[in-house]
Amino acid sequence: MNGHTGQKTRFSGTSLICDQVGQSLITLKNRNNESYMFTSPSLTVNGIWYAAPYIELTGNSYIQSTTGYYATIEYSSRGWISGEKNHFKCYIRRNASSSSKEYLYKIEGQWSAKSTITSYGSKQASPFLDVTECTPAPLEVEDRGAEMETRRIWQKVSEAIRAGDTTTAGAEKSKIENKQRAERKERDEQGSDWTPQYFNWKDNEPTIFSLQRMLVATLKNKYDPPNAGNWVYHEA
Fold it and tell me: Which GO MF terms does the UniProt record name (predicted)?
């Protein structure tokens, strides 16, 4: 998987909204390089003024495939009177479909719990996924021993968070940030650029560009791609 994401924050009423800009690309090597581009929804932090903040997903996200199928996912939060927490509704359609009202499948439910799937024209919903019964896959990341390995850098912060020690977590986080600021200042003074070890930036990644054009042609002004660039992994 390759991709990039950036965040833009803003206030809306009593909520803090974080818009996630960018896209990611998954390529299935065992399916003749079938590729899927997907965007990320916005995050909303509610309950700030009541000193009981909680996060929910909001807005829309999209998945576009090289197979000619795409999905629109709508996220909604619990309202004052009705609704449920972490609700989503997903429609899977063909790019060549002449009507946005027609769909192949509708998936609906809670992304944090159960969801169902319904075929177009059917009133019978079937179970789709219950994430509460899923077992997280073991995280097996090769430890290359590099100083800038993410898990190595944030190890003390992670341990403090798991232990509920917010004081230590904050202190260790500040150490990391101050060190990175000092290193950036040194690079600026020397006129040198920081070069990622495992990723290269491509201004016009061809698969991303193609999938964006497919989605724009279908959704028109509902989808505005940020750019066609992407971080692409390479072996060091």
Answer: oxysterol binding
Q: Given this structure, which CATH class describes domain 2-133?
A: mainly beta
Instruction: Name the DSSP letter for residue 131.
Output: G
Is the pLDDT higher at 229 or at 146? 229
Asked whether the predicted pLDDT for residue 176 surpasses 90, the reply is yes
Q: How many residues does the chain have?
A: 236
Cβ neighbours, 10 Å, residue 169: 19
* pLDDT band at 139; cut points 50, 70, 90: low
Please state at what angle helix 166-190 crosses helix 155-162, rounded to 10 degrees. 160
Task: Using the structure block, give the residue that is written with the tokens 């390479």.
Answer: 234
On whether the CB atoms of residues 187 and 181 are closer than 8 A, the answer is: no
Around 175, how many Cα atoms within 13 Å sit in the side-chain half-sphere?
A: 11
Q: Which of 18-27, 76-85, 154-163, 181-190 has the lowest mean pLDDT?
A: 76-85
- Residue 211 and residue 25: Cα distance in Å, rounded? 10
Distance, CA of 154 to CA of 26 (rounded, Å): 26
CB 198 within 8 A of CB 222: no
* Token pair recorded at residue 12: 């809306």
Tokens 């509902």 found at: 222
Q: Evaluate if residue 8 carries a pLDDT over 60.
A: yes
Report the 10 Å Cβ neighbour count for 115: 20
Tokens 């497919």, located at residue:
214
Domain layout of the chain by residue ranges:
2-133, 150-190
Instruction: Using a pLDDT cut of 70, give the percent of the chain over it.
Output: 92
124, 116 in Cβ contact below 8 A? no
